Amino acid sequence: QVQLVESGGGSVQAGGSLRLSCAAFGSINSIYCMGWFRQAPWKEREGVAAVLTRGRTKFYANSLQDRFTISHDTAKNLLFLQLNSLKPEDTAMYYCAADSVYTGLWYEDGNYDAWGQGTQVTVSS
After folding, report:
1. Phi/psi of residue 81, nearest 5 degrees
2. Strand, helix or coil at 60?
3. Which of these, 104, 92, 103, lies nearest to 36 by C-alpha position?
4. Burial, 67: exposed, middle or buried (Cβ in 10 Å; 0-12, 13-18, 19+)?
5. Over the Cα atoms of the chain, what is R_g?
6. With the CA atoms of 31, 32, 34 and 35 taken in that order, what torsion angle do they form, in degrees rounded to the nearest 10?
7. How far apart are CA 74 and CA 9, in angstroms?
8. SS3 of residue 54 by DSSP
9. What letter does residue 89 receive in the DSSP assignment?
10. Chain centroid, CA 68 distance in Å
11. 3-state secondary structure at position 12
């Protein structure tokens, strides 16, 4: 099993930046894809970005790739999400997820085997 723990969320003003971190524990070698998702109040959870841990291929939601950057430190089993030029509409709970079998649909949350508890990002105008 894989356990994930996120950190780095907080409250910032519009235009600010945050760096989210996700530490992975347990059966690390089983992870093939790691992703970030977010869920705003009264909205469905949506995929933000993902990375294939072995091939380093990265995926982004089209509307976010200009401001968000995903990275993965294999040696330290850490996943990061750099959030720049934050907007109030980026306010959400951000979740880290791990998938042991990559199906090609990185943005489908049902494909992921393990989830963190989430870290809150709040952007004020």
Report:
1. -140, 110
2. strand
3. 92
4. middle
5. 13
6. -140
7. 22
8. coil
9. G
10. 10
11. strand
Q: How far apart are the first and last CA of the chain?
A: 40
Running along the chain, 125 residues long, what does each successive block of 10 average in pLDDT?
Answer: 96 98 93 96 96 90 96 93 98 97 89 96 97
Cite the beta strand spans of the chain per DSSP E. 2-7, 10-13, 18-26, 33-39, 46-52, 58-60, 68-73, 78-83, 92-99, 114-115, 119-124
Give 44's contacts (C-beta < 8 A, 6+ positions apart): none
Question: Are the beta carbons of 24 and 32 closer than 8 angstroms?
Answer: no
* pLDDT for 32: 93
Task: For tokens 């999400």, name the residue.
Answer: 81
